[in-house]
Amino acid sequence: MEFTHFDEDGNAIMVDVSDKEITKRTAYARGTIQVNHEIIEHIKNNTIEKGDVLGVARIAGIMAAKKTSDMIPLCHILMITNVTVDFEIDEEINQIHAFATVKCKGKTGVEMEALHAVSVTLLTIYDMCKAISKEMEIKNIHLLKKTGGKSGEFNWQEK
């Protein structure tokens, strides 16, 4: 197996995408935070002392997508054209699912940006709700789908 982030001497390098074609690229990621019923009720009723939890988390996720190359070594700086962060609240099992969609036209994909957006979104929910309970679990962060680029389309297969 050939690793793309190392040169022939084993030194870490940024992958050279100079000769790649510019294509439309989209990545969809998802993650979950397990909370308790009290936190769900506070979020639904917008009664968390720090403010609108999902609104702030959405902005944090969008900002994270835009700053991915600052946080992930060797990640390319991309001209992102769109980021969305959405939520589903499952009151039956006290979970909040975060979904991020990131788009660009470029020479490399936006999977890391979508995953980073979801991660920071969920961390923000944790931060804003930890005064109520620190017993929250962030889990199942993964890429759902990606389109564009040389490797084509990817779709998550539930196991």
UniProtKB/TrEMBL annotation:
Pathway(s) per entry: Cofactor biosynthesis; molybdopterin biosynthesis
Which reactions is this enzyme annotated as catalysing? (8S)-3',8-cyclo-7,8-dihydroguanosine 5'-triphosphate = cyclic pyranopterin phosphate + diphosphate
Q: Which EC number(s) are documented for this chain?
A: 4.6.1.17
Q: Which residues bind substrate?
A: 74-76, 112-113
Instruction: Give the top-rank taxon of the lineage listed in the UniProt record for this protein.
Output: Bacteria
Q: Where is the chain membrane-spanning?
A: none
Does this UniProt record's set of keywords contain Transferase?
A: no
* Catalytic residues (UniProt): 127
Q: Which enzyme class, named as a word?
A: lyase
Q: State the function annotated in the UniProt record.
A: Catalyzes the conversion of (8S)-3',8-cyclo-7,8-dihydroguanosine 5'-triphosphate to cyclic pyranopterin monophosphate (cPMP).
Self-association or partners: how does it assemble?
Answer: Homohexamer; trimer of dimers.
Q: Which PANTHER family match?
A: CYCLIC PYRANOPTERIN MONOPHOSPHATE SYNTHASE, MOLYBDOPTERIN COFACTOR SYNTHESIS PROTEIN A
Family stated for the protein in its record: Belongs to the MoaC family.
Protein name in the entry = Cyclic pyranopterin monophosphate synthase
**UniProt source species:** Catenibacterium faecis
* The organism's taxonomic lineage, starting at the top: Bacteria, Bacillati, Bacillota, Erysipelotrichia, Erysipelotrichales
